[in-house]
Design brief:
alpha+beta, Arc Repressor Mutant, subunit A, Umud Fragment, subunit A, 2 domains, 9-stranded mixed β-sheet, two-stranded antiparallel sheet, 3 helices, 17% helix, LexA_DNA-bd_dom, repressor
Length: 220
Protein backbone atom coordinates (compact mmCIF):
# COMPACT_ATOMS: atom_id res chain seq x y z
CA UNK A 1 0.00 0.00 0.00
CA UNK A 2 1.09 3.57 -0.63
CA UNK A 3 2.42 5.76 2.15
CA UNK A 4 0.25 8.35 3.87
CA UNK A 5 0.72 12.05 4.43
CA UNK A 6 0.72 13.30 8.02
CA UNK A 7 -2.84 14.63 7.67
CA UNK A 8 -4.08 11.34 6.20
CA UNK A 9 -2.48 9.47 9.12
CA UNK A 10 -4.27 11.80 11.55
CA UNK A 11 -7.64 11.20 9.87
CA UNK A 12 -7.11 7.43 9.92
CA UNK A 13 -6.08 7.54 13.58
CA UNK A 14 -9.21 9.52 14.50
CA UNK A 15 -11.47 7.03 12.72
CA UNK A 16 -9.79 4.13 14.53
CA UNK A 17 -10.07 5.98 17.85
CA UNK A 18 -13.77 6.67 17.34
CA UNK A 19 -14.53 3.02 16.52
CA UNK A 20 -12.53 1.77 19.52
CA UNK A 21 -14.06 4.23 21.98
CA UNK A 22 -17.64 4.57 20.70
CA UNK A 23 -18.18 1.50 18.55
CA UNK A 24 -18.88 3.44 15.35
CA UNK A 25 -17.00 5.79 13.00
CA UNK A 26 -17.25 9.60 13.03
CA UNK A 27 -19.33 11.64 10.60
CA UNK A 28 -17.75 13.96 8.05
CA UNK A 29 -18.65 16.89 10.28
CA UNK A 30 -16.93 15.30 13.27
CA UNK A 31 -13.80 14.56 11.29
CA UNK A 32 -13.76 18.13 9.98
CA UNK A 33 -14.18 19.58 13.48
CA UNK A 34 -11.44 17.34 14.88
CA UNK A 35 -9.01 18.14 12.07
CA UNK A 36 -9.87 21.81 11.70
CA UNK A 37 -11.21 21.30 8.16
CA UNK A 38 -14.14 23.62 7.45
CA UNK A 39 -15.27 22.01 4.20
CA UNK A 40 -16.85 18.56 3.94
CA UNK A 41 -15.26 18.37 0.51
CA UNK A 42 -11.88 18.74 2.19
CA UNK A 43 -12.68 15.82 4.50
CA UNK A 44 -13.82 13.75 1.55
CA UNK A 45 -10.52 14.40 -0.22
CA UNK A 46 -8.67 12.74 2.66
CA UNK A 47 -11.13 9.82 2.81
CA UNK A 48 -10.89 9.21 -0.93
CA UNK A 49 -7.09 9.21 -0.66
CA UNK A 50 -7.27 6.65 2.18
CA UNK A 51 -9.60 4.47 0.10
CA UNK A 52 -7.43 4.78 -2.99
CA UNK A 53 -4.32 3.80 -1.02
CA UNK A 54 -6.09 0.78 0.47
CA UNK A 55 -6.37 1.89 4.12
CA UNK A 56 -10.13 2.47 4.35
CA UNK A 57 -13.45 1.08 3.16
CA UNK A 58 -16.82 2.84 3.03
CA UNK A 59 -20.23 1.18 2.76
CA UNK A 60 -22.69 2.60 0.27
CA UNK A 61 -25.72 4.48 1.65
CA UNK A 62 -24.27 4.81 5.17
CA UNK A 63 -22.58 7.99 6.34
CA UNK A 64 -21.20 6.26 9.45
CA UNK A 65 -19.71 3.31 7.59
CA UNK A 66 -15.99 4.08 7.57
CA UNK A 67 -13.62 1.33 8.66
CA UNK A 68 -9.85 0.98 8.46
CA UNK A 69 -9.07 -2.22 6.58
CA UNK A 70 -6.77 -3.49 9.32
CA UNK A 71 -9.65 -3.49 11.85
CA UNK A 72 -11.10 -6.98 11.43
CA UNK A 73 -14.76 -7.81 11.95
CA UNK A 74 -13.76 -10.13 14.79
CA UNK A 75 -12.35 -7.18 16.74
CA UNK A 76 -15.26 -4.86 15.98
CA UNK A 77 -18.11 -4.18 18.38
CA UNK A 78 -21.51 -5.65 17.60
CA UNK A 79 -22.92 -2.35 16.38
CA UNK A 80 -20.00 -1.52 14.07
CA UNK A 81 -20.91 -1.60 10.38
CA UNK A 82 -19.32 -4.45 8.45
CA UNK A 83 -17.99 -3.61 5.01
CA UNK A 84 -19.84 -5.16 2.09
CA UNK A 85 -18.37 -5.87 -1.35
CA UNK A 86 -18.05 -2.55 -3.14
CA UNK A 87 -19.73 -1.77 -6.41
CA UNK A 88 -17.40 -0.72 -9.24
CA UNK A 89 -16.42 2.95 -8.94
CA UNK A 90 -18.19 3.80 -12.21
CA UNK A 91 -21.47 2.53 -10.71
CA UNK A 92 -21.25 4.71 -7.60
CA UNK A 93 -22.52 8.24 -7.23
CA UNK A 94 -21.40 10.57 -4.45
CA UNK A 95 -24.42 12.57 -3.30
CA UNK A 96 -24.23 15.68 -1.09
CA UNK A 97 -26.76 15.70 1.78
CA UNK A 98 -28.16 18.98 3.09
CA UNK A 99 -29.74 19.46 6.47
CA UNK A 100 -31.94 22.35 5.36
CA UNK A 101 -32.54 24.66 2.41
CA UNK A 102 -33.12 28.37 2.84
CA UNK A 103 -34.02 31.15 0.43
CA UNK A 104 -31.26 33.42 -0.80
CA UNK A 105 -28.45 30.87 -0.49
CA UNK A 106 -27.02 28.36 -2.98
CA UNK A 107 -28.76 25.00 -2.77
CA UNK A 108 -25.58 23.18 -1.78
CA UNK A 109 -23.99 25.94 0.29
CA UNK A 110 -21.19 24.53 2.45
CA UNK A 111 -22.85 25.62 5.70
CA UNK A 112 -25.87 23.47 4.90
CA UNK A 113 -24.02 20.27 3.91
CA UNK A 114 -24.17 17.70 6.69
CA UNK A 115 -22.72 14.68 4.91
CA UNK A 116 -22.21 12.86 1.64
CA UNK A 117 -23.22 9.32 0.75
CA UNK A 118 -22.05 7.01 -2.03
CA UNK A 119 -24.87 5.08 -3.62
CA UNK A 120 -25.41 2.82 -6.60
CA UNK A 121 -26.52 4.83 -9.63
CA UNK A 122 -29.34 2.32 -10.19
CA UNK A 123 -31.00 3.54 -6.97
CA UNK A 124 -31.46 7.08 -8.25
CA UNK A 125 -32.51 8.15 -11.70
CA UNK A 126 -31.06 11.39 -12.98
CA UNK A 127 -27.30 11.13 -13.31
CA UNK A 128 -25.20 13.58 -11.32
CA UNK A 129 -27.91 16.18 -10.70
CA UNK A 130 -28.88 14.55 -7.41
CA UNK A 131 -28.81 15.86 -3.85
CA UNK A 132 -29.96 14.38 -0.56
CA UNK A 133 -32.17 16.07 2.02
CA UNK A 134 -33.01 15.03 5.56
CA UNK A 135 -36.78 15.09 6.09
CA UNK A 136 -38.26 16.98 9.03
CA UNK A 137 -41.91 16.57 10.00
CA UNK A 138 -44.82 14.24 9.23
CA UNK A 139 -46.43 15.87 6.19
CA UNK A 140 -45.63 12.94 3.86
CA UNK A 141 -46.12 9.94 6.16
CA UNK A 142 -48.93 8.47 4.06
CA UNK A 143 -46.51 8.35 1.12
CA UNK A 144 -44.03 6.39 3.25
CA UNK A 145 -41.70 9.37 3.85
CA UNK A 146 -41.15 9.72 7.58
CA UNK A 147 -39.50 12.22 9.89
CA UNK A 148 -35.75 11.62 9.83
CA UNK A 149 -35.72 9.85 6.45
CA UNK A 150 -33.31 10.88 3.72
CA UNK A 151 -34.74 11.63 0.31
CA UNK A 152 -32.76 11.80 -2.91
CA UNK A 153 -33.85 14.57 -5.23
CA UNK A 154 -33.18 15.12 -8.92
CA UNK A 155 -32.55 18.82 -9.43
CA UNK A 156 -34.93 20.34 -11.98
CA UNK A 157 -37.23 23.34 -12.30
CA UNK A 158 -40.20 21.43 -13.76
CA UNK A 159 -42.33 18.52 -12.59
CA UNK A 160 -45.25 16.40 -13.74
CA UNK A 161 -48.62 16.70 -12.05
CA UNK A 162 -48.78 14.39 -9.03
CA UNK A 163 -45.02 13.99 -8.58
CA UNK A 164 -43.43 14.44 -5.15
CA UNK A 165 -41.25 17.54 -5.26
CA UNK A 166 -39.04 19.66 -3.06
CA UNK A 167 -40.21 23.26 -3.31
CA UNK A 168 -38.94 26.45 -1.75
CA UNK A 169 -41.92 28.34 -0.35
CA UNK A 170 -41.07 31.42 1.63
CA UNK A 171 -37.81 30.81 3.45
CA UNK A 172 -37.90 27.04 3.80
CA UNK A 173 -38.07 23.94 1.64
CA UNK A 174 -41.07 21.62 1.75
CA UNK A 175 -41.69 18.11 0.40
CA UNK A 176 -45.15 17.73 -1.12
CA UNK A 177 -47.15 16.37 -4.06
CA UNK A 178 -47.22 18.88 -6.90
CA UNK A 179 -50.57 19.82 -8.50
CA UNK A 180 -50.64 22.84 -10.84
CA UNK A 181 -54.22 24.13 -11.16
CA UNK A 182 -55.71 26.94 -13.26
CA UNK A 183 -55.39 29.76 -10.72
CA UNK A 184 -52.92 28.32 -8.23
CA UNK A 185 -50.37 25.60 -7.57
CA UNK A 186 -51.36 23.13 -4.87
CA UNK A 187 -48.65 21.50 -2.79
CA UNK A 188 -50.49 18.58 -1.25
CA UNK A 189 -49.24 16.80 1.89
CA UNK A 190 -49.60 13.04 2.26
CA UNK A 191 -51.14 13.45 5.68
CA UNK A 192 -54.93 13.59 6.01
CA UNK A 193 -54.58 15.83 9.09
CA UNK A 194 -52.79 18.57 7.17
CA UNK A 195 -54.07 21.15 4.69
CA UNK A 196 -52.40 21.80 1.32
CA UNK A 197 -50.23 24.81 0.62
CA UNK A 198 -51.71 26.99 -2.14
CA UNK A 199 -49.58 29.37 -4.17
CA UNK A 200 -51.33 31.72 -6.57
CA UNK A 201 -50.35 31.12 -10.18
CA UNK A 202 -49.29 34.74 -10.51
CA UNK A 203 -46.91 34.31 -7.55
CA UNK A 204 -45.46 30.98 -8.60
CA UNK A 205 -41.96 31.02 -10.09
CA UNK A 206 -40.08 28.08 -11.63
CA UNK A 207 -37.24 28.71 -9.16
CA UNK A 208 -39.58 27.54 -6.39
CA UNK A 209 -39.22 23.98 -7.68
CA UNK A 210 -35.89 22.56 -6.56
CA UNK A 211 -36.38 19.03 -7.82
CA UNK A 212 -38.33 15.78 -7.93
CA UNK A 213 -37.97 13.07 -5.29
CA UNK A 214 -36.58 9.89 -6.86
CA UNK A 215 -35.72 7.73 -3.85
CA UNK A 216 -36.10 7.44 -0.06
CA UNK A 217 -33.56 6.03 2.39
CA UNK A 218 -34.25 5.09 6.00
CA UNK A 219 -31.88 3.87 8.68
CA UNK A 220 -33.33 0.85 10.52
Amino acid sequence: MQGLTERQQQVLHYIRQSINERGYPPTLREIGAHMGIRSTNGVNDHLRALERKGYLTREDMKSRALRPKDMSAANARADEPISMPEAPEDDLLEVPVVGRIAAGLPLLAEEHLIDTVRIDRMLVRGGREIFGLKVTGDSMIEAGILNGDYIFVRRQATAQRGEIVVALIGDEATVKYYFPEKDYVRFQPANSKMAPILVRASDFKPTMLLGVVVSVFRRL
